Recover the amino acids of this structure.
């Protein structure tokens, strides 16, 4: 037994070094990256930039204002769901977790997260103040399973200097295509005049990228993607046409190839292409670049919702939310969690500086939010944004499967037909396996 | 108590601690795994008996077949070159002197890096945007090569990364094996005027046969379980072109929550590794009984 | 030892090979001394100055890297010590003592050599959840202690020690444990060094198990912590910082390796591969 005793004794000795802390502890688990180096102890929320910076300073500030609560922050790699699954399986989940609204159904359906009405009531947060999009994102079968935090969508981030060079500016506004044919025509013209690709796209290790595109243009045509909670419909003429168009962009070299998300992000700043279709979350960082005289992007930045190419104006949106994994918790801890949520809700405007749309209607209406740059251009997103039906579970895994097949189709590794058939088959198999 | 009885209890006292840990942390999970693989089970404790259902599903799962192909291809691209390069290096470095000592240090060094650091370094060597190779190619006027996003290049790229990382241990093992070969055999051979090639083929290689077998067996088992490099460098992409079996096990268990199916795949991999190891052992040792 | 001199061709090839081994590390080192802003603006900036220590300062100032480093040290040291103790005891028992089922038990232990981690990792995750061992040091250390290799290795080593030593000591009235502790164990120190260093390295570099067992950032080991930072790279402090983290994380292990390099090769020559 000496061996075990030694091993355990040694480990316990080291583990036991921390002093005893009687305060209620809440474990907050979030993605958005780690930026302790830049924002380590800062509590200046207004001065912080980027999602990571704003949330880090927010939590620092909460700790400073609430010395009677101990906050343990657990930063996970985006999106952190395998880790959360491992934690729940281990019976040791965190207290508050950032979750995409599209993922909530999975956890709610399996009883792994709690309805949050009691917590919201304790925090004096009125669910009537949620924007319709935010509310739709967190309400499953009549119950609220999260406090919504924002609405995120995809935008076209546009380099107006290159668009002007390509002859695609009119009256100081970029001219955007209104049909797939026009999209290809613009892209060819752009390529010819600037020698650069029209689109910058993250096509490597970014499965969500093409899927958001496909969902957006299917929803715009009112195509039924999920006829019920166990089936998907992707082998359709609509889907084939959308994917074929984007395959064509790749085949003609009208978009950047082989970039992952970090590479594409940097490529846009360096002016290596005209338009970067990516999320609202890049609005804040790119604004900062556009305001910086040393940046190649200086003064040449505009945004727009995805243009109408098929059907109506529509956009697939999602959102972030704070969920509570189901667990027994003492009342003091629940009270501390309520205070944390109330605090976050008060700072929803600061979060919207990242580029995301606020989750609380009064913030959307507030002059401060309206005064932020470009928000008028993307207000349409709040109106036209649509999510997948609430009964669709495993959206993250589904997105991974479709994304993989789309990647193969768009890079030409697989014919479009075959990729869509395979995606449909794989998703349906996933649904069939669900317990 | 007589001495034999005392020895008996002493024996259990000495081997007991290890056996306890071994039973609790290895044997019990091994048995649990067999049981779980016969259930449709999710990560959170829900179970339903389905017999061999998970195994029949595995037979018809094209994604698993692709992962199996990728894994085998990786093992083939890694194990033979690794063994040959390690053998050549060990032969060259098995000599006294400062030069050889420094080079031994250099060739062992990557072995101490963790997979996270290895992939971090190699990502920024291979990436076509700012990678070391891309910078070199651009300086020479060539277009960068998208190693990590071309389905045909991604497996070789992971193989090269793994070769770079894994070289140290086999070199060490073979060096140790070479130092076991008695020096007088070489002296005798030198007196007979044997060429270096003859010495290598007739004396050295037979003498370190067991060591080489060990290297191949260990590396085969290790590369069939390749996980971190694929997960961190490519996430299995593009389009699953670099998904390995273990990465698939990770995705199925913690991404899709299908614990039963993931466990069944793990059992199949287990069987495959054992079979291959035994096969290699048999191929190398089957003639030895007659020779000695 | 081969008495032949290296041919010029072989020397050139060796030096080239060494350059291939070192270039990635040198590249990492260069990047780690560049400011993140400079790398964001121009990827080729690594080859020219100015260089800076800001990334290293940032690690020491405000990141979790130091905590992860401590965790890795605890886990790897715990694994090495645990394996040495358990394997030495068991190795002695199997090599020297007669007890019922000794052979059977030894064969069962040897069969463990053939069990890959994959065959047990998922059920072990369930088992440890049930025992409440996740996000604890014992939970991270215990799986390393099941390695059959250590027991096999130490058994071989004890068998190679002449039995006359035991008999002399037992005649002097020493107990089994005294014999083991005072007489035989000191003779196995070279083997202990090898086994210890390899266990330490394996535990230090382990990725799969800590990835699913250590799920809160204060129990991350360096491998898992750096992986989370790496996957967050798009949203994080930048390339220079990541590379500085990598360099910083490699320093302790490089020291261990350099300190023990001679023992490793020598002891391996003595026992490992017969």
């Amino acid at each position: 037994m000496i061996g075990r005793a030694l091993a355990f004794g040694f480990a316990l000795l080291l583990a036991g070094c921390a002093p005893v802390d009687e305060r209620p502890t809440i474990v907050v688990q979030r993605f958005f990256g780690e930026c302790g180096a830049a924002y380590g102890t800062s509590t200046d929320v207004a001065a912080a930039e980027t999602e990571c910076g704003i949330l880090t300073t927010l939590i620092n500030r909460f700790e400073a204002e609430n010395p009677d609560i101990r906050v343990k922050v657990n930063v996970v790699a985006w999106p952190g769901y395998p880790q959360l699954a491992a934690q729940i399986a281990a019976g040791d989940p965190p207290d508050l977790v950032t979750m995409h609204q599209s993922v909530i159904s999975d956890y709610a359906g399996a009883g792994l997260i709690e309805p949050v009405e009691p917590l919201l009531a304790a925090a004096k947060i009125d669910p009537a103040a949620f924007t319709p999009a935010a509310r739709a994102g967190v309400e499953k079968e009549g119950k609220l399973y999260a406090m919504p935090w924002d609405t995120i969508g995809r935008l076209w981030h546009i380099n107006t200097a290159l668009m002007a060079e390509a002859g695609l500016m009119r009256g100081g506004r970029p001219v955007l295509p209104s049909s797939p044919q026009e999209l290809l025509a613009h892209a060819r013209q752009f390529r010819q005049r600037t020698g650069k690709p029209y689109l910058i796209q993250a096509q490597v290790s970014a499965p969500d990228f093409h899927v958001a595109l496909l969902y957006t243009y299917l929803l715009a045509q009112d195509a039924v993607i999920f006829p019920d909670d166990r089936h998907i419909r992707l082998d359709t003429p609509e889907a084939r046409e959308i994917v074929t168009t984007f395959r064509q962009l790749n085949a003609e070299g009208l978009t950047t190839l082989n970039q992952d998300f970090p590479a594409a992000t940097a490529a846009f700043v360096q002016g290596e292409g005209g338009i970067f279709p990516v999320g609202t979350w890049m609005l804040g960082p790119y604004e900062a670049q556009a305001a910086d005289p040393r940046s190649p992007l200086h003064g040449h930045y505009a945004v727009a919702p995805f243009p109408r190419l098929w059907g109506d104006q529509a956009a697939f949106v999602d959102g972030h939310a704070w969920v509570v994994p189901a667990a027994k918790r003492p009342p003091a801890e629940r009270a501390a969690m309520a205070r944390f949520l109330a605090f976050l809700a008060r700072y929803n405007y600061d979060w919207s500086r990242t580029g995301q749309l606020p989750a609380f209607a009064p913030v959307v209406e507030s002059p401060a939010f309206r005064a932020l740059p470009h928000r008028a251009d993307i207000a349409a997103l709040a109106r036209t944004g649509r999510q997948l039906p609430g009964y669709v579970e495993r959206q993250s895994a589904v997105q991974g499967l479709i994304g993989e097949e789309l990647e193969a189709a768009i890079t030409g590794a697989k014919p479009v037909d075959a990729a869509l058939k395979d995606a449909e088959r794989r998703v349906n198999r996933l649904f069939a396996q669900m317990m | 108590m007589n001495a034999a009885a005392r020895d008996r209890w002493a024996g259990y006292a000495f081997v007991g601690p290890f056996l306890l840990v071994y039973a609790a942390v290895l044997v019990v999970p091994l048995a649990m795994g067999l049981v779980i693989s016969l259930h449709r089970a999710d990560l959170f404790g829900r179970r339903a008996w389905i017999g061999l259902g998970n195994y029949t599903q595995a037979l018809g799962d094209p994604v698993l077949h692709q992962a199996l192909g990728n894994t085998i291809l990786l093992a083939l691209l890694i194990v033979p070159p690794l063994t040959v390069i390690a053998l050549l290096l060990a032969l060259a470095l098995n000599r006294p002197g400062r030069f050889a000592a420094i080079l031994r240090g250099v060739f062992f060094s990557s072995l101490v890096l963790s997979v996270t650091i290895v992939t971090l370094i190699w990502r920024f060597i291979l990436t076509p945007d700012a990678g070391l190779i891309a910078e070199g190619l651009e300086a020479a006027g060539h277009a960068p090569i998208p190693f990590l996003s071309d389905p045909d290049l991604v497996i070789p790229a992971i193989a090269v990364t793994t070769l770079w990382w894994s070289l140290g241990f086999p070199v060490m093992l073979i060096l140790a094996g070479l130092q076991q070969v008695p020096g007088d055999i070489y002296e005798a051979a030198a007196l007979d005027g044997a060429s270096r090639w003859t010495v290598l083929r007739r004396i050295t290689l037979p003498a370190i046969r067991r060591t080489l077998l060990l290297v191949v067996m260990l590396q085969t088992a290790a590369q069939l379980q390749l996980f971190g490099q694929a997960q961190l460098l490519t996430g299995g992409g593009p389009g699953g072109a670099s998904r390995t079996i273990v990465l698939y096990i990770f995705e199925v268990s913690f991404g899709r929550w299908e614990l039963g199916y993931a466990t069944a795949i793990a059992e199949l991999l287990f069987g495959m590794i054992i079979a291959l190891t035994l096969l290699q052992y048999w191929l190398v040792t089957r003639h030895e009984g007659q020779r000695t | 030892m081969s008495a032949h001199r290296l041919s010029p061709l072989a020397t050139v090839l060796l030096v080239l090979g060494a350059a291939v081994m070192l270039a990635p590390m040198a590249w990492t080192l260069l990047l780690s001394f560049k400011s993140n802003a400079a790398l964001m603006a121009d990827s080729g900036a690594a080859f020219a100055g100015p260089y800076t220590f800001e990334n290293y300062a940032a690690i020491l100032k405000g990141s979790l890297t130091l905590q992860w480093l401590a965790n890795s040290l605890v886990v790897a040291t715990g694994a090495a010590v645990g394996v040495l103790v358990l394997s030495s005891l068991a190795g002695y028992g199997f090599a020297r003592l007669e007890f019922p089922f000794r052979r059977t038990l030894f064969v069962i232990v040897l069969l463990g050599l053939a069990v890959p981690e994959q065959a047990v990792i998922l059920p072990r995750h369930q088992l440890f959840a049930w025992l409440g061992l996740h996000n604890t040091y014992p939970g991270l250390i215990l799986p390393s202690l099941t390695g059959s290799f250590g027991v096999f290795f130490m058994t071989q080593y004890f068998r190679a020690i002449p039995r006359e030593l035991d008999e002399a000591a037992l005649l002097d009235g020493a107990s089994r444990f005294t014999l083991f502790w005072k007489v035989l164990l000191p003779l196995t120190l070279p083997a202990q060094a090898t086994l210890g260093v390899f266990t330490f390295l394996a535990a230090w570099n382990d990725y799969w198990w800590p990835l699913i067992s250590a799920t809160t950032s204060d129990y991350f080991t360096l491998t898992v912590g750096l992986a989370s930072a790496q996957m967050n790279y798009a949203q994080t402090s930048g390339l220079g910082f990541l590379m500085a983290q990598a360099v910083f994380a490699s320093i302790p292990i490089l020291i261990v390796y350099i300190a023990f390099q001679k023992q490793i090769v020598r002891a391996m020559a003595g026992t490992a591969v017969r």
Summary: The first helix of chain A runs from residue 2 to 15. Residues 19-151+318-382 of chain A form a domain with the D-Maltodextrin-Binding Protein; domain 2 fold (CATH 3.40.190.10).
